[in-house]
Automatic annotation (TrEMBL):
SUPFAM superfamilies cross-referenced by the UniProt entry: WRKY DNA-binding domain
Name of this protein: WRKY domain-containing protein
Subcellular location: Nucleus
Compositional bias ranges of the Low complexity kind: 118-136
Composition-biased stretches (Polar residues): 92-103
Keywords assigned by UniProt, alphabetized: DNA-binding, Nucleus, Transcription, Transcription regulation
Residue ranges of the region described as Disordered: 92-146
DNA sequence: CGGCTTTGACCAGCGC
DNA sequence: GCGCTGGTCAAAGCCG
């Protein structure tokens, strides 16, 4: 929780230098074209073409500006959510400390065998939350467990669900097979038990139960670590790309859309996958570390590339730029 | 027909 | 040892 996304130097600006295009080259050519220094060599159609190029260049600059603005808005939203999350965490900590200091155990019955959903490292992300209990947290539950067992990763995910929807389903992109359901003592709503069915060797389990406080919130507890890539990644690999439907790289939930004002990248913090940090990396327990991870950067880059590649204006601009580059080279060759 | 869900039965851990 | 509880198994049913 030490790193702010806003401090991340993710430069999303599409520099023409990055495209190996020298803007001066264009401006020089355009200026000389306008000044008529090359008019003797250029036909009317070439002048029109230059105008089109200039217009497209301006369009690209505008879209670049829009993208930067959208990113800024996204960062602002993220900061707002993060502040809200920190507030909730501090509230929880205060509540826990006050309860423990007073010796209150109203919500936790003394007979409880296992300390489930130990909300120690709980984080919330705008109506969506996760927690991750560390290895020692799990070893507390089973003091005599082996070292191997004590390394089982436990993470808890809170997902907003439709109260009218009785299914205990938390969509995280993985394939789960339900193998049991049980009504527990401390919660009137049943708890569903799931096993990862994507890979037979994957021993990851998931427990889903409605929150006692808020029935509209599903609490999913993940045990273990997937030993296979995310199904969507596999799909993308099999398909050769990630272009079908809404691209979902890894499990980082991201809805992408291209509207009239340009491509929009929307980090959907309400989707389960983001909090399921097992997917994102080495079990980071908060979104700060997620954003710190190289996977996140890779995801951002791939999303941008994906959106840009879908944008016809970008394609045409890129094609124009490349052809312009060749044109420039061919001019240089003819000069020497 | 294969995969998934449902659900009652069974097992193991824990406290008394 | 007994009862309580959480977790798992497996047969039956459902569904595309």
């Amino acid at each position: 929780m030490t790193m702010d996304l806003s401090t991340c130097s993710v430069d999303t600006s599409l520099s023409l230098f990055d495209l190996n295009i020298n803007p001066l080259m264009y401006s020089d050519r355009l200026n000389s074209t306008m000044n008529g220094t090359e008019t003797s060599k250029m036909t009317v159609s070439e002048t029109q073409q230059a105008n089109v190029l200039a217009a497209e260049l301006n369009k690209m600059v505008e879209e670049n500006k829009k993208l930067s603005e959208m990113l800024m808005v996204m960062l602002q939203n993220y900061n707002t959510l993060r502040n809200h999350m920190m507030e909730l965490i501090s509230r929880n900590k205060n509540a826990d400390s006050s309860n423990s200091s007073k010796g209150m155990q109203v919500a936790t019955p003394p007979k409880k065998r296992k300390l489930e959903n130990d909300n120690n490292n709980t984080t919330t992300t705008g109506g969506y939350a996760e927690s991750s209990s560390s290895e020692e947290g799990y070893s507390k539950q089973k003091p005599n467990t082996s070292i191997e067992e004590s390394k089982i990763k436990i993470s808890t995910v809170y997902a907003k669900a439709d109260p009218s929807d009785n299914r205990l389903v938390v969509k995280d992109g993985y394939q789960w097979r339900k193998y049991g359901q049980k009504v527990t003592r401390d919660n009137p709503s049943p708890r569903a038990y799931f096993k990862c069915s994507f890979a037979p060797t994957c021993l990851v389990k998931k427990k889903v139960q409605r929150s006692v406080e808020d029935q509209s919130v599903l609490v999913a507890t993940y045990e273990g670590e997937h030993n296979h890539p995310h199904p969507s990644q596999t799909d993308a690999i099999l398909a050769g790309s990630n272009v079908r439907g809404q691209p979902n790289i890894g499990s980082v939930p991201c809805l992408t859309s291209i509207n009239s004002s340009g491509p929009t990248i929307t980090l959907d913090l309400t989707q389960p996958g983001l909090s399921h940090h097992q997917d994102i990396g080495a079990h980071k327990s908060n979104s700060d570390e997620i954003t710190k991870s190289p996977v996140f950067y890779q995801f951002l880059i791939e999303q941008m590339a994906s959106n840009l590649s879908k944008d016809p204006t970008f394609k045409s601009a890129l094609a124009t730029a490349i052809s312009g580059r060749y044109f420039q080279q061919s001019l240089g060759n003819t000069k020497y």
